[in-house]
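Help! Submission page says 'invalid entity' but I think these are all valid:
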Amino acid sequence: METAMDDLFTDALRRWLTDQCPPDRVRAIEAGESHASLWESLEDSGFADALLPEERGGAGLSLQQVFPLLELCGAHALPLPLGETLLARAALAVARIEPPRGSVTLGEAVATADGGVRCDRASGGRVADWVLTCIDDSALLLPVREAQVRGAVFPLDAALTWSAATTCGAARFDAALDIRALLACVHAAQIAGALMNVCNRTLQYANDRVQFGRPIGKFQAIQHQLAVMAEHVIAARMAAQIGCRGDPTQLDRSRVAVAKARASEAALEVAAAAHAIHGAIGFTAEFDLQLYTRRLHAWRQAAGAESYWHDVLGAELLRQPDGPAFDLPRRLTEFH
Amino acid sequence: MNALGSLAPTAIPPDDEALRAPVRAFLAEAVAALPPQVRARSWSGYDPAFSRELGRRGWLGLTLPPQYGGAGRSPFARYVLVEELLNAGAPVGSHWIADRQSGPLILKYGTDEQKRHYLPPICRGESYFCIGMSEPNSGSDLASVRTRAVRTDRGWTLSGQKIWTTYAHGCHYMIALVRTSGDAQDRHQGLSQVIVDLSLPGVTVRPIRDQSGDSHFCEVFFDDVALEPEALIGEEGRGWEQVTAELAFERSGPERLYSSIVLFDTWLAFLRSGVETPSAVRLAGKIVAALAPLRALSVAVTGKLARGESPIVEAALVKDLGTSLEQFIPAAIADDLASREGQSVPMELLLTLDYLTQVAPSFSLRGGTRDILRGMIARGLGLR
């Protein structure tokens, strides 16, 4: 029954993304066109409530069942923080706070000297309605419309600052939300989706592009690059699924570390190989490949790149008493 | 969806997982006291007494049916057992090939007579097999094998030569891929598999010393060896298909992830003695981040094998990833240890590192070279 519900959602979101979010829509929103109607359509379809229990109007899916949705957001370069909203609404529900209408992204933030809050890089901050953050075990839900907005490197992200007055008036609840882990979990799954897309595109290109009288995919050098790319794709996808386990508001940091570290490593390698195989056409603005490879780099660099999470895992391993090292990866890959 | 999306997180059933504790307890007694440079040899370590002890405990031929002496358990049970054996660095080399692939191959393709003859001693840890695939002029190009079995009125006459045959000098039987009709131009046609009793007249086995000083592989000569008619295993002329199916079992198991794990454990113990550094912690984490998804992928391939599928491309993906990690571990640990100043590194750790540094090239050769695997993967992905 649950599995059926899960598949139903995945198929529905795939159809929605194919219809509503083609590459030219992604480009337009990145260029500044309004995202409001796209979000309305998404909200009306109920996807953003998938993690909420049924009695709160949600679909009651588990985090592992939501993985395919997060993956699809990455595969289609959805220019909206759906993944972040899914997890944020789950956290709000646990705190018995009615989620506000609109999208909620997750942002790592610090308190400013004058009593406000600063978030230097809100993922999807330019297209989000709210930011859920956590400072000193106190979670805060802040409205983007009341923030001072500055641009960030990735066009959909934003640097946001809230005044002391806005911060005081914001919904606040006691919760030790691990914003970095939540974001890392989402980004790892999005990376997995984008990797699959990039790999499939590159396979297609290698079959289609003819040089020296034959498809370039006939050349062993290209075949081997694609094989290595495929290895990164399956490893990162499995890693991202390791991250999407358990209670979405109490993530296992070591599992998320595996997810984000391995996905980030793959993001770099796969983006590089895809561009190498596509040649010059691949990094033109007009060609779609860049929509996904730019995201691979952005998501790799968000919420801790591979070395940050390697440090987390290494510290966890060295804290283990003597005993086989593989007990840690074994524990992290026990699926129930 | 192609092979890339087909490996889902797979749970090891609790009954199979339950095998872990007794195996681990046994290994703590039987193996833990061996020095790490010995344990590092693992599936290259030859110890018939150890194999017979595993057989006595019912831990060989785990997936074979009870009527042939096996335990009738799932591939997951064997996965758990093997994972423990390899991580402990148990000397499993003598029975390794028989247990991993010769037994299952005989079960799948053998006649009832062959099964009753060969399988029970495999399960007792008394009968060891080697794989006769490579020849001096047939390495990666396996279909070009020239060793030939010619039908006679009394069976077959075998002539030719195999090489790089692991533990031929310590095995009772070889399952050899040989030409039974046509010639090398016929490629995949006309190949068959035969079981060769290595004690027969006309068989000469010569061990080859490798650069680490061990002699684990051999060259094997067949000088008009007379084989019984029932030496043929499976169908005449179907050798290529049989070998290909066998390789899926050979390529995705825990032995493609854990070849350097004893070194990793030994290095971690050194770090815990108060010499941990930020870069060493980061390296340890990098290895875990690679190992965890690989282990999950390897279990997922086991799930496919358990369902009777033949995940050849998936197994190739896992093997190439796994052997890359196995080779990365000694390279990276050497960098860590050799970039310290004024610290003495335990000799056992250095010897373990030295052994793995020298055998690491073989990780991506045995069972199909990296380049062959990548070609298979590319074709499996749909490159035309």
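Support: the input was valid. A stray whitespace character was the problem, and the output above is from the cleaned input. Chain B has three domains: 3-127, 131-237, 243-380.
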